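Regression test case RT-17, inverse folding.

Input:
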């Protein structure tokens, strides 16, 4: 996402241009406006983009999950049909082909896949702006703490930077496990057979990208030393848990019929890794391969930021 967006030689889609313009606007606000106005505008911007994520994207996903609403909308209006779409079809096709590159064939994939790709661009727009507004908002509150001793400030900032680094590791490791399909809610649009080994960050906490994956919020609160940032971070984190409870969990339960608990998935992954070195011995002794760890389907969904 970031590589294609900020690489000057990569062709830019309309969504890319809109994203760059909005990000630049937030930067100008952070650099130009007086402090009080800057704080107010960026706080409103952060609230807007956070609600676009948990409320807007959440509503679309719930609509798609319950009624296949988004895909049905495209089918009903023929926007991805060359015989009915007209200029909209031409524009959307050019958007996807520019984004996906030469290895992508627009006409050879199902409409559900193309709609998902378009939804991904909307997700990128919202998530990048959500992050940017929070970052610039924190910058407005740097120096808010009244540390009585220098070592107080050192511990506060060191702790905040540690939480930021930990947050980055959680996101990167979670994406390593679930890949783009689960990262961008692909199972709301179509299902695929996929085997995952839930190791790394998934062995630390349930729903790691929604729980410990927001440690950076509290890192920002520590670095700024601002209660305003802390309460804004706490409210945003609570909205993320509402998103999990009202959008993700109902879809998981409907699609996968009582998915296993997180601890059960982790245990299966551990058994699967432990049984791998014994597979050759088992083959020699019995002539068959009997894996103790069954293939773990994608039944627990984790999301971005």
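Golden output:
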């Amino acid at each position: 996402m970031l590589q294609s967006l900020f690489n000057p030689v990569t062709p830019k889609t309309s969504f890319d241009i809109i994203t760059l313009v909005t990000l630049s606007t937030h930067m100008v606000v952070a650099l130009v406006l007086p402090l009080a106005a800057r704080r107010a505008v960026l706080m409103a911007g952060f609230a807007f983009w956070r609600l676009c994520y948990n409320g807007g994207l959440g509503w679309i996903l719930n609509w798609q999950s319950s009624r296949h609403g988004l895909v049905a909308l495209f089918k009903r209006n023929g926007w991805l049909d060359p015989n009915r779409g007209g200029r909209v079809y031409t524009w959307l096709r050019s958007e996807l082909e520019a984004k996906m590159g030469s290895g992508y064939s627009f006409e050879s994939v199902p409409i559900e896949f193309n709609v998902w790709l378009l939804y991904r661009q909307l997700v990128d727009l919202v998530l990048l702006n959500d992050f940017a507004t929070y970052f610039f908002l924190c910058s407005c509150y740097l120096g808010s703490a009244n540390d009585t001793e220098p070592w107080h400030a050192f511990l506060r900032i060191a702790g905040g930077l540690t939480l930021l680094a930990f947050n980055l590791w959680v996101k990167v490791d979670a994406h390593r496990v679930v890949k783009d399909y689960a990262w961008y809610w692909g199972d709301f649009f179509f299902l695929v057979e996929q085997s995952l080994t839930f190791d790394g960050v998934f062995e630390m906490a349930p729903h790691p990208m929604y729980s410990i994956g927001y440690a950076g919020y509290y890192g920002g609160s520590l670095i700024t030393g601002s209660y305003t940032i802390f309460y804004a971070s706490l409210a945003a984190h609570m909205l993320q848990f509402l998103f999990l409870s009202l959008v993700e969990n109902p879809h998981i339960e409907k699609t996968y019929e009582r998915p296993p608990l997180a601890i059960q998935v982790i245990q299966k992954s551990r058994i699967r890794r432990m049984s791998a070195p014994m597979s050759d011995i088992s083959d020699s002794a019995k002539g068959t391969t009997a894996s103790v760890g069954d293939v773990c389907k994608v039944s627990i969904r984790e999301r971005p930021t």
